[in-house]
Design brief:
By secondary structure, the chain is α/β, with parallel strands linked by helices. It folds into two domains: 173 residues, Rossmann fold (3-Layer(aba) Sandwich), CATH 3.40.50; 146 residues, N-(1-d-carboxylethyl)-l-norvaline Dehydrogenase, domain 2 (Orthogonal Bundle), CATH 1.10.1040. It contains 14 helices and ten strands. The strands form two sheets. The protein has an eight-stranded mixed sheet with strand order 5-2-1-6-7-8-9-10, sandwiched between helices. Strands 3-4 form a two-stranded antiparallel ribbon. Strand 9, helix 6 and strand 10 form a beta-alpha-beta unit. The N terminus and C terminus are likely disordered.
Length: 360
């Protein structure tokens, strides 16, 4: 008679993991998945990058100094997804749809694990919404949290949210990816997790501007706190839970990216605040600062939903609306004073107008 399965044993097993996207984060995730005991294939979008990594066993372009174990397979052939149990989508947010459209016909039964943080600029859709459109009926999860790729690759302690509506998918992925030093915490709210990861990139640019402009630590602390309120508003409006952004995928990620020069978005904002033009900053970078494109998409989405997100709007105006940093700061400082929390003195933040709703 077959023994009863352990209560901690997932209903589905994930053995072969394909990581799509060989930037810093994709490479780090491949290293982490191998460390967790999985069979791993890292798939680069460019053949020359895959060949160079195969020859040197390191990603010198995006993650120098972090060895890639010989057991990790390297390829540029994305049809490998057909053989995967799970595919980690570590692609730039604005390239996710195009890549999925190209490989959808080759997709088998693998779970799609979204590791990109952004909002599609042309549609205003979150990453889980794009995957649901491109891969209808497939299992879907969102992996997000406060992580710098180099630290994950070096096996320094980190924790992430792994959100999936389906409990079996969630359990299997937590078991497949989690280790003592790469801790995976489950959630059943992928939309809430996606909102936190996307919006914090935009808001981190705002915090960088504050630092680059020399506005002080008081201003940065205030901005981080109010940014979290904006993330909660968006999560609720999109059907997620407002408490989800209080976890790793929201508050945790916000703290990391709004306080460290290692953050691509924070450092970009700091350069803007110090007076460098955006075009010059972007021209000198290889890696993508997701917040730049997401700022326009976030502003569009907030207006579509009737949300009052002044910090997000200010960053959008500086990056895409031709506003000066001085004008954006004056706009924020000139807003009327009101109750801090919607539940304590009227739900001002929820009606999108910045005014308290009428009684009755």
């Amino acid at each position: 008679m077959k023994e009863r399965e352990s209560v901690s044993e997932p209903r589905h097993k994930v053995n072969h993991i394909v990581v799509l996207g060989a930037g810093a984060w994709g490479t780090a995730l491949a290293i982490a998945a191998h460390r967790a005991g999985r069979q791993v294939t890292l798939c680069a979008r460019r053949e020359e990058l895959a060949a160079k990594m195969a020859a040197t066993r390191v990603n010198e372009t995006y993650l120098p100094g972090c060895p890639i174990d010989p057991a990790i397979a390297l390829t540029s052939d994305a049809t490998i997804v057909a053989a995967a149990d799970a595919v980690l989508l570590a692609l730039p947010a604005q390239h996710l749809r195009g890549t999925l459209d190209q490989i959808a016909a080759h997709w088998g039964n693998a779970a799609a694990v979204i590791c990109a943080k952004g909002i599609e600029r042309t549609t205003g859709l979150l990453m889980p919404e794009i995957v649901a459109e491109c891969l209808p009926g497939r299992k879907l999860a969102m992996l997000s949290g406060p992580t710098f790729a180099a630290e994950v690759a070096r096996d320094l302690p980190a924790a992430v949210t792994l959100a999936a509506s389906d409990a079996g998918t969630r359990e299997a992925l937590i078991a497949a990816l989690g280790t003592r030093r790469f801790r995976t915490y489950g959630s059943d709210d992928p939309i809430g997790a996606a909102v936190g990861g996307a919006a914090k990139n935009v808001l981190a640019i705002g915090c960088g501007i504050v630092a680059g402009r020399g506005l002080g630590e008081n201003a940065r602390a205030a901005l981080v706190t109010r940014a979290l309120v904006e993330i909660q508003l968006l999560a609720r409006a999109k059907g997620g839970r407002p408490e989800t952004p209080m976890g790793l995928s929201g508050l945790g990620d916000l703290l990391l990216t709004c306080t460290s020069p290692q953050s691509r978005n924070y450092s970009l904002g700091a350069e803007l605040g110090a007076g460098r033009p955006l075009e010059a900053i972007l021209a000198g970078r290889r890696s993508v600062a997701e917040g730049v494109e997401t700022a326009a998409a976030l502003g569009m989405l907030a207006r579509r939903l009737g949300l009052d997100m002044p910090i997000a709007f200010a960053v959008e105006a500086v990056l895409h609306g031709g506003a000066t940093i001085e004008a954006a700061i004056e706009m924020l400082l000139g807003r009327p004073l009101r109750a801090e929390l919607a539940g304590s003195a009227g739900r001002a933040e929820l009606n999108g107008s910045g005014n308290r709703p009428a009684k009755g």
